[in-house]
């Protein structure tokens, strides 16, 4: 499998290098768009536990983390040399959001049901609105804006798992309030209910479990059952504290919330910034001096998303971080070393069409 030009050979020393790497990762996806641009289906598809429509929406939505933040990077730099490339790169995603939320179009993403995979992707769409509101909302025709609002509002009143998924609805409602202008009073009840659940995941020192944590009594019962049966593979609820506690989901979400909801919810934003400081006091030890991260826990196919915590710190500009994260340069160093490590070990990461395969250091 070949390396990816623009990423594998990228020195990753500064902001321009970072932008070039992001562009290189996203560009190969263009050839895999559906005709209406609302979905992406890669040639090297694998099975999923959800329906094909949701799977194709996932293919469209996940790259929005990159596309929306690339557009955000142009907010105060209209003359950036990469500007025209980024605008062109983002165009099919802007078109796709208009088509995917149109219930009368055959590429409509579908109705969001209880516990639906579409809930996961709705958060990414919502965050795209938060990062680049003009491109993904304000500059669009009124009927497209109405369709986006209607599709996102389907998140409310639905059942979802008691885990990091609750953040998906929080950010969806945050985008509806801050970008779409929906009155806060209409959505605050949903936000409060989800926050009440998320607050129960806090286990101290900045860490959160991904779901309710076992009580001492429940843990003792599980130990007794394991000793009796000789089975230690039946892990109970709430025994999950891995990268989902940090870069993949909860810390990442808390930090972004402190960035976007600083005026809407200043008290909670302050609390989350403090938790990010506590978490950072030990999380940096999960990365060696070359940037490699400890491979443990679920979803290691997310690869360099392990460094997402550092990206969130940077964009939220969290101050008063403990050493060795006590300056913006230090945070940048952890992030760039991590990405450089992946770039230098990417010889088995990409297919010949430039898209990323599924795996860690191997497909």
Shape: globular
Distance between the termini: 10 Å
Number of helices: 14
Q: What structural class do the secondary elements suggest?
A: mainly alpha
Strand content: under 5%
Q: What's the story with the biggest beta sheet?
A: 2 strands, antiparallel
State the share of residues found in helices, binned by percent.
40-55%
Order of helices and strands: HHHHHHHHHEEHHHHH
For the largest beta sheet, what order do the strands appear in spatially? 1-2
- On the 0 to 100 scale, the average pLDDT is 94
List segments where confidence is low: pLDDT < 50 over at least 5 consecutive residues: none
Radius of gyration: 20 Å
How many runs of DSSP E, i.e. beta strands?
A: 2
Structural summary, described in words:
The protein has 363 residues and is an all-alpha fold. It has a domain at 212-241. It is built from 14 helices and 2 strands; from the N terminus they run αααααααααββααααα. It has a two-stranded antiparallel sheet. The protein is globular. It starts with 14 loop residues before the first helix and ends in a 19-residue tail after the last helix. The mean pLDDT is 94.
């Amino acid at each position: 499998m070949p390396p990816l030009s623009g990423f594998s050979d990228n020195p990753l020393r500064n902001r321009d290098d970072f932008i070039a790497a992001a562009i290189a990762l996203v560009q190969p996806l263009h050839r895999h768009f559906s005709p209406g641009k609302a979905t992406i289906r890669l040639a090297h598809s694998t099975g999923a536990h959800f329906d094909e429509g949701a799977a194709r929406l996932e293919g469209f939505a996940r790259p929005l983390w990159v596309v929306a933040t690339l557009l955000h990077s142009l907010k105060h730099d209209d003359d950036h040399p990469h500007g025209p490339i980024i605008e062109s790169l983002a165009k099919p995603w802007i078109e796709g959001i208009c088509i995917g939320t149109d219930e009368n179009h055959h590429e409509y993403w579908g109705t969001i049901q209880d516990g639906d995979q579409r809930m996961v992707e709705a958060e990414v769409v919502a965050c795209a609105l938060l990062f680049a509101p003009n491109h993904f909302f304000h500059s669009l025709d009124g009927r497209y804006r109405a369709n986006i609002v209607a599709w996102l509002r389907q998140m409310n009143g639905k059942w979802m798992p008691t885990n990091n998924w609750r953040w998906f609805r929080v950010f969806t409602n945050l985008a509806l309030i801050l970008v779409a202008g929906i009155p806060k009073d209409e959505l605050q009840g949903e936000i409060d209910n989800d926050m009440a659940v998320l607050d129960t995941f806090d286990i101290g020192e900045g860490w959160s479990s991904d779901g309710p944590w076992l009580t001492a009594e429940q843990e003792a019962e599980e130990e007794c059952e394991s000793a009796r049966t000789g089975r230690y593979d039946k892990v109970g609820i709430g025994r999950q504290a891995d990268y989902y506690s940090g870069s993949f989901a909860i810390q990442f979400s808390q930090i972004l919330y402190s960035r976007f909801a600083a005026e809407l919810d200043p008290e909670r934003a302050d609390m989350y910034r403090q938790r990010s400081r506590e978490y950072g006091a030990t999380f940096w030890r999960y990365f060696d001096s070359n940037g490699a991260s400890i491979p443990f826990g679920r979803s290691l196919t997310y690869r360099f998303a392990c460094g997402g915590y550092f990206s969130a710190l940077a964009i939220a500009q969290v101050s008063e971080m403990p050493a060795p994260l006590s300056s913006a340069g230090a945070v940048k160093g952890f992030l760039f070393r991590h990405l450089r490590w992946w770039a230098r070990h990417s010889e088995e990461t990409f297919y010949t069409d430039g898209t990323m395969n599924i795996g860690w250091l191997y497909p």
